[in-house]
Write a structure and sequence with these properties.
Blueprint lengths: L1 H23 L14 E3 L1 E24 L4 E4 L8 E2 L6 E5 H9 L5 H8 L5 E4 L5 E6 L6 E2 L4 E15 L12 E6 L6 E11 L7 E8 L10 E16 L6 E3 L2 E3 L1 E9 L4 E11 L1 H4 L12 E2 L2
Antiparallel strand pairs: 1-17, 2-9, 2-13, 3-5, 3-8, 4-7, 5-6, 7-9, 9-12, 10-11, 10-13, 11-12, 14-15, 14-18, 16-17
Length: about 300
């Protein structure tokens, strides 16, 4: 009898040992959704995006000035990096005959000789066709030239080629303005406008920039480096919310917004307008299957 009771007790203990781990391994019940999610309110206020930039001055839309006839260059006034205008003289060009007369005149009668014979022999000022910066001087005083020889090279535009030096999260577009100063001593101030930009492959928060200088001025030197601030945008009455509550999915951006509804059927609802409140996507447990630990991708 005792042997039967002992065998029965052993069987009961074995069944209990197998059953208890099974109870421990059972999944916990799902956490019930809250009766009400915490609401957050969007604000209306100022948002301004400005970013530090740097660039090197380059000559763009350059053109050459040529000799109109055979002769000799006189009184070269323009130097490299000078600002020139169509009203100003860069040099004077005298025909071969006029140059010989000028050489034969005494210092006191040179001006009188020029005035007397300039209507007979070619003697004219060399002027640029457009405003610009002199990038090359190809002649020197008293140098003889032939018709068609290059005298000067002038750039109609100066473009700063560079990049932003701190992270930028907004899109760039042509026409954005920048204020810059030369890196050497900061005395030369420039205003420029963005004409082109290309995001860098290794980090899209940084871009190659082309900034065209507005209003060429004296002192601009090609090859000089300039630093400054690019204004990307400003809105004093923007509807804003913390960036952490905006999530990305498949290249699109979402916010869980309050909406006002109208007509409603069993499977459809009419949306009338959005409200000014939103709910945190993390509180709702919104995720996406992108291999990133099951979490929704946040903004960088």
């Amino acid at each position: 009898m005792l042997e039967r009771l002992s065998a029965a007790a052993s069987s009961a203990l074995l069944l209990a040992a197998l059953y208890v781990p099974a109870l421990r391994a059972a999944p916990a019940p799902a956490k019930p959704a809250p009766d009400r999610y915490a609401e957050l309110r969007m604000e209306t206020g100022l948002i301004e995006v400005r970013v530090k930039v740097t660039g090197i001055a380059t000559a763009q839309d350059s053109y050459d000035i040529f000799a109109d006839f055979d002769g000799r260059v006189e009184d070269v006034q323009a130097k490299v990096f000078d600002l020139v205008t169509p009203e100003g003289e860069m040099a004077k060009l005298a025909s071969t005959e006029m140059a010989a007369l000028m050489d034969s005149a005494s210092p006191g009668t040179k001006d009188q000789m020029e005035n007397r014979w300039k209507g007979v022999y070619d003697y004219q000022p060399v002027k640029p066709e457009f405003h610009g910066i002199v990038t090359a001087v190809h002649v020197s005083p008293k140098e003889r030239v032939r018709k068609g020889d290059r005298l000067f090279t002038v750039a109609k535009k100066v473009v700063l080629i560079g990049k932003n030096t701190e992270k930028l999260y907004s899109r760039l577009s042509p026409g954005m303005t920048a204020e810059l100063a030369d890196r050497k001593d900061g005395w030369l101030k420039l205003r420029a406008k963005l004409v082109n930009s290309i995001p860098l492959k290794d980090d899209p928060h940084f871009s190659r920039l082309w900034l065209e200088v507005d209003g060429l001025q004296r002192g601009i030197r090609i090859g000089e480096q300039f630093d400054g601030i690019l204004t990307v945008g400003r809105n004093e009455a923007a509807m804003v919310l913390p960036k952490q509550y905006v999530f990305n999915d498949s290249g699109k951006r979402y916010v869980v917004l309050e909406v006002e509804t109208g007509l409603e059927s069993e499977d459809k609802v009419e949306l009338l307008r959005r409200g000014s409140r939103f709910i945190s996507s993390e509180e709702l447990g919104i995720t996406r299957k992108d291999g990133q630990n099951g979490k929704a991708k946040k903004n960088d």
